[in-house]
């Protein structure tokens, strides 16, 4: 008799758990239709991204990560699009960080490298489809902070290439 009762109780618990877990999945899918419907066509940024890739990548190497972020509001754009460029590897990040730090101490060759990066970003920004889009290139200092070496919109260099 105990076995029948335990079997019945176990079955009831399993059905309850299965029902609860399937409800949470359907609730999740009901609460997230906006993400699928609000996908933005970022193909209009392809020309600027391709320009950046052709200038920054060496012989087909993929050293940079290009991220297109929509609905960004900052000092320069309102609900616009941001193309964010960061080194893919820690080695790339450390190399960029060293170039930046050395350029701040007056090393001319590193200052020229920073100027070249700023010029590349500035030229690519001219291919942006509107004035409410921005390109930034930098590296992440930690989870909350990043250092920008270059930033431009179509009509303005936010971080200027000082010659």
UniProtKB/TrEMBL annotation:
Biased composition (Basic and acidic residues): 25-49
Region span, Disordered: 22-60
Signal sequence range: 1-18
Source organism superkingdom: Bacteria
Keywords noted in UniProt: Signal
Designated name of the protein: Lipoprotein
